[in-house]
Amino acid sequence: MRRFLLICVLLVCPFAGQAQGLPVDSRSGDVEVKEAMALPAPLRQALMVSAYDRSAPQREQIQKLIDFMLGEEGLALRYQEQPTYGLAESYARRRVNCLSFTLMFVALARASGMRVRVQASDVVLEAWTASDLVFRSAHVNAVVEGDFGSYVVDVGWRNVVAERSPRVINDRQAVALLHNNLAMEHLAHGDISGAHSEIDSALALDSRNAILWSNAGIVEQRGGRQDLAERMYLRALSLSSRNITALGNLVLLYEANGSQEKALQYKARLQRAQERDPFSQFIRAQALMKNGKEEDAIPLLRTAIRMLPEEPSFYRTLADAYHRQEQQEAADSTFDRALVLEAKMQSRRGIRNADAGHTLSP
Q1: Which residues pair with 152 in a beta bridge?
Q2: Cβ within 8 Å of residue 276, ≥6 positions away
Q3: Which of 101, 279, 330, 338 is least enclosed, having the fewest CB within 10 Å?
């Protein structure tokens, strides 16, 4: 049987969830969220020992807390993309990704008297393939709300960045994303049961997130429940009509079961959505280049750059395409731009990789 590359989102998805009998107990959910956001006693004690002047300007307080989390004399946290840990285990292992770092920062900042919440981004930072899945990573960070504006704190940045209008999510939604990551990690290891349990927990906390429904569809499809998978993908699209992961997975599902008319219908919708997505343009360009079609890839890469002009990987790939087309002057200038952007990003990175000496942003 043909294996399809289903597309899921890792923050690095009332059918089979609620409508199929998964009760949403608001009180138990609140207890779970409270426990997930609670500081372990040793970490709370470490924070008290590193107490700093709360009368200092807020920006200084925030930077002090970041230094405590990342510095060798503090927690010395290291970046590790997977697996995703909850707050207690992240502290015990000193390993975090963007999600676990953000949850820890929020908990520590609140214990320090700051007003802080989680902020989620829909921007796809990268895509990669593993275990017959195409992973598209989204991102989260923290926003501290002060008297004179707001500050965004990101695992990959050395400094605090001012943000006038951050888009925030509540704690239930943030913990739902934790369950989402765990579900997709179980799925990547072939653990359908574990993935099902985690994605159900995610949906019980946040049933309005299209990403969760799309990922739940993948779990059902991998478990052989095609009808339930279809209903979940459609549920995702009812919440976000241009959701690329749900559209792509529906196309694959319909092609697999012979529903060609539906496949064509959703493929048209998918193409329209991809036209607005820079990473879709980038991925298509990479596929064309693998087949020696650099001339067709170049316009897609230029489009991706117009949509996301600060992404150095776009420029590197475009420079490679120009080089293969023997447009050396364009290749050199484009490659130079990639180097400038990479240097700019590197100067802002502030957390070390768990397995290497260099710094890495999620």
Answers
A1: 143, 161
A2: 242, 307
A3: 330
